[in-house]
Amino acid sequence: MTEELKDIGPDRSLLLVDDDEAFVRRLAKAMDKRGFQSQTALSVAEGKSMALARPPAFAVVDLRLADGNGLDVVQTLHEQRPDCRVIVLTGYGAIATAVAAVKIGAIDYLSKPADANDITKALLEEGEDLPAPPENLMSADRVRWEHIQRVYEMCDRNVSETARRLSMHRRTLQRILAKRSPK
User: Fold this and answer.
1) CB contact at 8 A, 96 and 69
2) Over the Cα atoms of the chain, what is R_g?
3) Protein fold of 140-178
4) Does the 3-124 domain belong in CATH 3.40.50.2300?
5) How far apart (Å, rounded) are the C-alpha atoms in residues 146 and 95?
6) pLDDT of residue 162
């Protein structure tokens, strides 16, 4: 067991909510090795029911899930157990969602890819220290791709509406959306 967890107390329950089953399974295994007692959920509905049945001391919740918004799980967790330390994890970071997550009870907001060490540090961090600037910044292509993804989501995944808002031809947008994200 790590030294970090000795000071936390007896309740080391951790709820992991992510619709990527392989990722959440690997993360649960890694967090269990760090002394947490993990349980996993693959959807908003499953996460909320687990939060209502046995509110955990810690939680890591993905923002975008197949059946809805992970912020609904964060809100349920905060209502059931105000002292629950919740981290919101997402591949689609935006200032507006980060602010919303913190307002409803999240203590931090991490963008993917985040490993178990980053998550453990964020869950256990008590200080008010500002985070260090990122070592490797996103490329211009990655920033463009993420902006397109945000607008696409805002338009409820409607390609024609997204193309109109971005002043882009619909076919060009379809080709961009079909490609993998740039590094």
Assistant:
1) no
2) 18
3) Arc Repressor Mutant, subunit A (1.10.10)
4) yes
5) 13
6) 94
Q: Which residues of 58-79 are buried (b: 16+ CB within 10 A; e: fewer)?
A: bbbbbbebeeebbbbbbbbbbe
Q: Are the C-beta atoms of residues 62 and 90 closer than 8 Å to each other?
A: yes
Give the DSSP per-residue string, 25-56.
HHHHHHHHHTT-EEEEESSHHHHHHHHHHS--
Long-range contacts of 19-23, Cβ-Cβ distance < 8 Å, separation of 24 or more: 19/43, 19/62, 19/65, 19/66, 20/62
Partners of 40 in the β-ladder? 16
Q: What is the mean pLDDT of the chain?
A: 82
Interhelix angle 44-53/71-80, nearest 10 degrees: 10
Residues of the chain with pLDDT under 70: 1-9, 92-94, 127-137, 183
**How far is residue 152 from each of residues 74, 86, 157, measured CA to CA in Å?**
24, 27, 5
